[in-house]
Structures are given as structure tokens and as C-alpha cells.
TrEMBL record:
Listed name of the protein: Bifunctional oligoribonuclease/PAP phosphatase NrnA
Any one Gene Ontology molecular-function term assigned to this protein's record: nucleic acid binding
Domain DHHA1 per the UniProt entry, residue ranges: 244-328
Native organism taxonomy: Bacteria, Pseudomonadati, Bacteroidota, Chitinophagia, Chitinophagales
Matching Pfam families: DHH (PF01368), DHHA1 (PF02272)
Domain DDH: 16-166
Entries under InterPro entries matching the protein: DDH_dom, DHH_sf, DHHA1_dom, Oligoribo/pAp-PDE_c-di-AMP_PDE
Superkingdom in the source lineage: Bacteria
Amino acid sequence: MKPIEDIKPLLETPKKVVITMHQKPDADAMGSSLAMYHYLRQKGHEITVISPTNFPDFLKWMPGADLVVDFESSQDKAMSALEAVDLLFCLDFNALYRTKALAPYLEQLKSIRILIDHHLEPQPGFDYGVSDTAASSTAQLVYETLYKLGEEQYITDEIAQCIYAGAMTDTGSFRFASTSARVHRMVADLLDRGLKHELIHQAIYDNFLENRLRFIGHSLLHRMEVFYEYNTAMMAIPYTDLKRFDLQTGDTEGLVNFLLSIQGIKMAALIIDRREEVKLSFRSKGNFDVNTFARKYFEGGGHFNAAGGRSTDGLERTVQRFIKAMEENEDLLQ
């Protein structure tokens, strides 16, 4: 894979560009993709941003979010863009399977593939890109890419908003270990450019419905288990809870962090029955590697202290598998 800055000659003449992200995109995936969209649009390119699935309502304030094509609901429009694409940008994922039903179509493309991502162990097959696991977020890498290209003059307020949203959420509001001096320097630069950061925080964190708060209370009271001998907390959410509280995409975002806030807990697991499969989210403190844990037991991966996985075994069986895996890692969890 050639360095990301080597794409500059490719961007000097208008191209047909597709930007895509992982399924069920979060603020980093959406923010980094839309930041890149706003940059490339200024350069005169024809751009289509494709999300493999729908995305949370609390991200729909982002500049350009109304232009994002949902592959599941607008497949014809997405396919039309893919059939003509010159440059494919893959943001906030590093393995095509993370784009769900979109993956087989991306695999067949003959276009130039460009990766911008911060997850561990990227798959081969990208022509250009940056894969930096030390970065706080893909949004940060988009920001740094613009500087590497010598194109920082194109950072508009729209781009700044998207970048800040991605970095803020992926760092847990700038409290995770990934919040490096690089991140603070970036934020200072965005503030110097006039960014109104408090409005972004309100749009993402203070924009939920009452039912989500009641769901969180119900889950903490009835679905949480704490295994103090393993320094682990788990929450298992049945599909009936999702229906009872009428949850929408993104409503469980951040729930796993409540578990990690318990004193002495080193690993937190959120296990949700999504009906088509069971989804798992893992968080950890210190030296417990949930990326390796997710890859070994649940066909997943991610970062050292934040990862995800999946299971087709049903909720009860998946919980049993998790408990067994936790017990096998007792020494590492001490």
C-alpha cells in the first residue's frame, strides 16, 4: 500500500469517487466520510457517499448527511455509482466484510482503493492509504491527510464539524488513552478556525428520546451482571427489550461504557440480540486486550481497549460462551 500523500496527483483532475464506511456507522465513520466528501467536492470531483446500512438519527445533523446513500434501501442508486467509480475511499474499516451486503460488490471493483483507518490488522488489497492504530479516530487521520497533501486551506467549518464529531466520540469525549497531544493540537486548530464545539456535543449527546433513558435504567437494573472475581461486568439485552422500548439505530451506543465505570472492572461486555445475529461490544482498561479476545472467541476485532464481535448462537448460548471465555482469561483479568 502506497502512502496516502501519493494520491495527490490522482486528485488533480475530476474523478468519479465513492466513499464508504462500515455497517451501522458511528460518528467517526460518518464524520470522516463526510469530511472527505466536503474536501473532494471543493476539488471538483463527482462523489457518492454510501453507507452499507442505515445510521442513527443523532448523526443526521452532520453537514452532508442528507446526501448519504443507504445501500440497503437505495441499492440501485448505490450500484449506479459503483459501476462508474474511479476512486474508492474506504474509511473507518479495514476489511471489506465490515460493509455487510455491500462487501461482494466492493470486492469485484477494479477501481483504485484508498484506505484511511485506525483499526488493527488491515486486510491486503488497498492501493493507497494510511493505517495508524495510534490515531484516536479515522476523523483525525482525515484531518492529518489534508495536511500531508498540503490542502489544509480546504478545511471549512463543515469539515471541522465532521472531524470534531468523529474524534470526540471515538475518544469518549477526549478521556480515552488514545487522546494524544496530536488530538489536542488538532482540536486547537479547529477551534482557531472558528469551530463551535459545544453545539456538536449537544447534537450527539443531548438529542435522545425519553424511551432511551428508560431503557438504560431498565438495563442497568435488570440486565447487568458483575463478576468481581474476574473484574468483569456484562450486560445481555434480549430482543424483546429492543422492541419494548422502541429502540432505533444508535440507541445502545455508549451503553457498554457504563459497565466500565464500575470500580475495579477491567473488561465490560454488552451482548445484544439483534434477531438476525447477536452483537457484542467489548471495552477494557489497562492491559487487557479486547481486540485479541474478540478475534479469538467472537469473529471480531477492533482496538486494544475497544472491540466488537458477533455470534449466530442466540443470546443465551452466546452469554454462556462469553462466560467460558472470561473464565479462560482469568489470569489476564487480574
